[in-house]
Amino acid sequence: xxxxxxxxxxxxxxxxxxxxxxxxxxxxxxxxxxxxxxxxxxxxxxxxxxxxxxxxxxxxxxxxxxxxxxxxxxxxxxxxxxxxxxxxxxxxxxxxxxxxxxxx
Length: 104
What we know:
single chain; about 30% helix; 2 helices; two-stranded antiparallel ribbon
């Protein structure tokens, strides 16, 4: 099976400044605010802006099915010394990039 690796660089200075500003508030709610939250939000916004990217093909009908929702999942390594389980994939369903409750 072929493997592909892609590396890009990004300036995350503004993201890190926002994360540092929000870290105390998040910690007071027992939340560890990592860059993953920002990356997932960017993915949701991209999928909403370009809905064809998240579409699927209905082979029988020969139609492209455009989704009007976004579900985002990520794989997390959960290996421990006492467990053979190696990953979990939490999924955030029906995501919104609404700025109503987001940091500005």
